[in-house]
Task: inverse folding
């Protein structure tokens, strides 16, 4: 089952057996809390089935969604590596099956296996690049452009052709607002504008992106052509 985890896909059967022997298995149902912001648990987790949401709440109580992670992903590796308290809360977005590995075993695995060390390093550098991009977007883009960026991020995993995507089920307006740090009304206005311009279409529980190239160009123009 661990062969579905992206970081483990190139491991030999023997190496996978070593990893599996270090894991404990847990089932969480929808909305169950897995780890809480600032708690002292140290384990790393691997999502074998289902999807989780990583989030935290601002001082004012506003929910801030950092990301949703599907099966094949991992989380909790930062605390497992540095020993600091959790930097966010993770909840089950669907029913999920997780493999959990203690911080000591996770670190020893990295130190003893060059392949795993390499993929973990690439994962961490990828996170830094994504965070750098998000900081740039939050610092320079208007709300409408940040909403467009988020739609394009959703589209990456739901492509139906080179220029279209179907996000199913579609995120709610409140979820998009929490992802881009705005309010639901601003999301509603932008989605209506995009629909009028025939760039998106809502159909039952699905959101169709009809012209990804044009939407990408709009974002690129807002970023100053970067």
Result:
């Amino acid at each position: 089952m661990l062969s579905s985890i992206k970081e483990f896909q190139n491991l030999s059967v023997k190496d996978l057996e070593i990893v599996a022997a270090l894991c404990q298995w847990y089932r969480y149902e929808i909305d169950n809390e897995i780890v809480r912001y600032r708690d002292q648990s140290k384990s790393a987790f691997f999502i074998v089935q289902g999807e989780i949401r990583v989030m935290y709440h601002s001082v004012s109580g506003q929910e801030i969604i950092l990301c949703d992670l599907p099966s094949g992903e991992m989380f909790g590796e930062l605390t497992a590596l540095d020993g600091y308290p959790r930097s966010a809360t993770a909840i089950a977005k669907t029913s999920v099956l997780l493999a959990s590995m203690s911080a000591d075993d996770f670190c020893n695995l990295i130190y003893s296996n060059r392949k795993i060390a390499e993929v973990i390093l690439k994962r961490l550098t990828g996170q830094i690049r994504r965070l750098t991009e998000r900081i740039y977007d939050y610092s320079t883009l208007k709300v409408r452009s940040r909403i467009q960026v988020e739609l394009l991020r959703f589209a990456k995993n739901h492509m139906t052709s080179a220029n279209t995507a179907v996000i199913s089920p579609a995120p709610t307006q409140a979820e998009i607002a929490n992802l881009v740090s705005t309010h639901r009304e601003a999301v509603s206005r932008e989605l209506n504008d995009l629909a009028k311009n025939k760039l998106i279409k809502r159909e039952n529980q699905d959101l169709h992106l009809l012209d990804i190239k044009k939407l990408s160009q709009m974002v690129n123009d807002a970023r100053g052509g970067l």
In short: Residues 2-137 form a domain with the Jelly Rolls fold (CATH 2.60.120.10). The chain has a mean pLDDT of 92. The chain has eight helices and eleven strands.
